Amino acid sequence: MTDTPLARPAPPICSARGCQAPGVWALRWNNPRLHDPDRRKTWLACPDHRGSLGDFLDARGFLREVAPVPPSPTLDDVDEHSEVTG
């Protein structure tokens, strides 16, 4: 057994092209021509892109719901128990 530290999970990232900011909003959508009414796909958005991504989906009649992304117990656990070494 090795004492290799676990890799830190990557935080959720905004779905806007080229954006690397944390995704803090879940834009839940579906395309009624392709998806069952209950199916939801999710794009993540940072505060700067929530409006533009939401407007894009809404203009096409795809946007169903916008909700805050819940905190990750896994990421929170890593933050609380990580040690600074060096």
UniProtKB/TrEMBL annotation:
Residues 67-86 are annotated as: Disordered. This is Acetone carboxylase. It comes from Micromonospora polyrhachis.
